[in-house]
Amino acid sequence: MEKFIWSFIIGGLICVIGQILMDGFKLTPAHTMCTLVVSGAILGGLGWYDPLVKFAGAGATVPICSFGNQLVKGALQEAETTGIIGVLTGIFEVTSAGISAAIIFGFLAALIFRPKG
């Protein structure tokens, strides 16, 4: 039960940071999203994001900053095995499932709901 509470608190704090960026610094949603992705990448590169994931679970893996962490993690893992080219291939290998799912479900939603354009 305690894990659920910490997950909620950490996920909520990440959302609060995003809201502060938009309201306090007048950043657009796109700028805020990029800031959170880059923050997750930096924290992942420093090795600080994985302990946060262990502590908060979904509270740290669901927000967008987790995407930045995954990009860095994939790049570093592939760089260890294949060298510098692994930096490029690792990014695509780790994130391809999530990106593919977003494209597929977005397409299906467009078919079902007939968006206006």
UniProtKB/TrEMBL annotation:
Residue ranges annotated as transmembrane are 6-25, 32-49, 84-113
* Keyword Secreted belongs to the record: no
Q: Which UniProt keywords apply?
A: Membrane, Transmembrane, Transmembrane helix
Transmembrane: present as a keyword of the record? yes
Checking Pfam families in the record gives: SpoVAC_SpoVAEB (PF03862)
Which PANTHER family does the UniProt entry name for this protein?
STAGE V SPORULATION PROTEIN AC-RELATED, STAGE V SPORULATION PROTEIN AEB
- Name of this chain's protein: Stage V sporulation protein AE
Lineage of the organism = Bacteria, Bacillati, Bacillota, Clostridia, Eubacteriales
